[in-house]
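For anyone still unconvinced, we reproduce a single protein record, the chain in one-letter code, the fold tokenised, and leave readers to judge:
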Amino acid sequence: KTQAVPVAHIFFGQFVDHDITLDISSSFARLDRAEDTTNVRTPTLDLDCIYGDGPEGSPYLYYHKRPKFSGVKLLTGADMPSPTPFQTDDLLRTPDDRAIIGDPRNDENRVVSQLQLGMIRFHNKVVDHLDAEGVPEGELFEEAARMVRWHYQWIVVNDYLKTLVGAPLLADILGHGRRIYRPEHCTFNAPYGGGPFIPVEFSVAAYRFGHSMIPQRIQIQHGKSALDVFGPTLGHGFCPLSDADAVVHWPQVLDLSDSTVDRADQLDAKMAKDLLDLPFVAAGGVKSLAVRNLLRGQAFLLPSGETFAELCERPAAEVGTVTAKARALASDAGHARALDGGTPLWLYILIEAGEIGQEKAPGTFIKGEGLGPVGGRIVAETLIGLQELDSHAYLGSDRSWSPARAGLKPGGVNTLLDLMMY
């Protein structure tokens, strides 16, 4: 286990991924051209998975015909007529149990489903706060949505990224600018105004780092037993809450001040056994998530990890350490010459995290605690760049903003735990 990565951060990473990417056209069974692969989500951290197309475009997500907050507050299971105790802690659902949310993937497991619910509840509480502050009803939705998005974006940068890439790398990017993710300078992106897009090196390789950090079992309630990630309580997605043990208690998966809080697995070239034999893949399909990731990287003709490390100007000795470990793993598996042409980018990033580690303080690296120099730069520069190139995001609009200025509570809602518990 890691020392400082709460297990819920890995599921939050999945939530963020669903907010910015959806690829329904590529396949690891053929070669894919990145420029021909449509991203069905908006490549900005705008929470369209929460807000859909807004009260007019997605009215089914919002209050309707109520004395107050019609078209402003979002619906949950608690808004059902005479809701059951389970419905009060669940998303709003259709009669055949489908979640009525902006992105159906956020119901694919219980933890991400509860994250979706937590974000909806946060929006509704922000509405209450702004209403009490005297914001006119006609301005409530837009102001609440902006405030929620900016808190979410702040948490992505200052809680999630800080935990997973380390403070020194984060400070370098924010202080000295992005070095590798620069859509505004990409020739092929010029017809689109140089706006944000999702690079395949991020979506196909670097941002799949979380697959190594998902434990086989997680404990979501204090004093209760750990549960299988793919077991009936947590892993059977797209169904209503039916077990009180599946309600996530956020301090138990986020509050590192408590020694009993469940941590993520270390980031290295190992994965939970269930991820190597995915139970939801049909017989005859590729059931190993590791193999699926490697095939997808090959399908997009991603550069090797060594090539990307050179681009990031990493020391030759550091790159050599990662390469040697990758070749040793290939040799142990009976494929000694398999990596002569370079290490697949996804595998390089995992090995880099395990062998080099995350820079926790300037010049101090801790193995397994998060992303290393190459993986961390790809992930952090992309998630920061998506905001800097979005005039509606806090980094693209008002870089001096902080949650303390929002006044939701003394000191501000600064972390994912703060947000879930607000």
Summary: The mean pLDDT is 95.
